[in-house]
Design goal:
- 38% of the residues lie in helices and 10% in strands.
- Strands 4-3-7 form a three-stranded antiparallel β-sheet, with no helix packed on it.
- Helix 1 packs antiparallel against helix 2 and helix 3 packs across helix 5.
């Protein structure tokens, strides 16, 4: 498949180039998706989240404009070979892995990214953005690294979305022409959301007896202690629909998959299989009797070096640093033992 001309996406919506580009895009989508009624709309408001017919999408592209960050038309039948190559180039970069940078630097802010990030094509696009210089000739920052730094400042100092958008506009004017700084908070979130991973909120018994999940999902009282699922207000009246306790569950499997997508990280995860202790001292869990006991007890698990060995850790803390507050958080953390020291 020949690569489509996408220069029209940056043209004035009143221009002939934009008009021809819209028609070419719609024809391309219909030919590949074999439908004229259920096509994702790439306008700046729908951002490929809503399905419409060709006519409505045409109107949206003229009235709202096209989402210019949608560079690889994977939702409309374009091959994602280009993004795969971008991802491969990142993996082969021994000096600075984009994956390791992201995992070390970004600090997600509560629920800012919601349930985004499950689309592998979107993730590959973000990694491709990581290779773009912040402005022509810039060697210190890429678009992704600059966004991460700026977003960390926003989270650290409680900057509002409106203020953050104004900051982007000012930086766009200050930086040289051709810079890749986003024009709004919305566009910045779209770029960063693919780095986030899905999570689930589960209601829990206040006494930690059960999770209201699967077969218990519709219960209103705990089967064990009989206490209500709902929060009790100051007037001792239950607030139906407001859970008394919530567990935030981050599924580990998607995260493990992300770890193995990086060539360097995948190599580190199997590092323990080739390593042998030569000095007789224990410098890694792989030297411990517990590790060797597990190998002897489950040899099939030991035969596959990509199998992950995990440690479970938990402790409570008061996020408000107030001894008078009864509120506390108890993060449960999985630690990967496969990685080298």
């Amino acid at each position: 498949m020949s690569e489509m001309d996408k220069s029209w996406m940056h043209s004035d919506r009143r221009s002939k180039a934009y008009e021809l580009g819209v028609e070419a895009f719609l024809n391309f989508s219909v030919e590949n998706l074999l439908t004229t009624t259920h096509i994702r709309c790439p306008c700046v408001k729908c951002v490929n989240l809503k399905l419409f017919g060709v006519g409505i999408i045409r109107d949206h592209l003229y009235f709202n404009g096209v989402d210019q960050s949608y560079k690889n038309w994977t939702f409309h039948g374009e091959s994602w070979e280009a993004t795969t190559n971008a991802s491969r180039n990142v993996e082969e970069d021994d000096d600075h892995s984009r994956y390791s940078f992201v995992s070390e630097e970004i600090e997600m802010d509560d629920n800012d990214f919601g349930d985004f990030g499950s689309d592998p094509y979107e993730f590959a696009n973000v990694i491709g953005d990581g290779d773009q210089p912040l402005y022509p000739g810039c060697r210190k920052y890429t678009k992704l690294s600059a966004l991460v730094k700026l977003y960390n400042l926003k989270a650290k100092y409680g900057m509002s979305d409106v203020c953050f958008t104004e900051l982007f506009i000012l930086q766009g004017d200050l930086l040289p022409e051709g810079n890749t700084i986003p024009a709004s908070m919305y566009e910045a979130k779209k770029t960063l959301c693919a780095l986030g991973l899905s999570y689930e909120k589960m209601h829990a018994c206040p006494n930690d007896c059960i999770l209201y999940w699967k077969e218990y999902e519709d219960l209103t009282h705990c089967l064990n202690c009989g206490i209500s699922r709902w929060k009790e207000g100051k007037d001792s009246i239950l607030k139906e629909g407001v859970p008394a306790k919530v567990v935030w569950y981050f599924p580990p499997i998607p995260r493990f998959k992300r770890m193995f997508r990086s060539h360097e990280t995948a190599k580190s995860l199997t590092w323990h299989a080739a390593r042998k202790s030569i000095d007789g001292y224990m410098s890694h869990p792989a030297d411990s009797p517990s590790w060797k006991l597990l190998d002897d007890k489950w040899p099939e698990f030991d035969n596959e070096p990509r199998n992950l060995r995990l440690a479970l850790s938990s402790d409570g803390f008061n996020p408000h640093s107030s001894l008078t507050s009864r509120y506390s958080c108890w993060p449960v953390i999985l630690v990967t033992y496969n990685l080298p020291p």
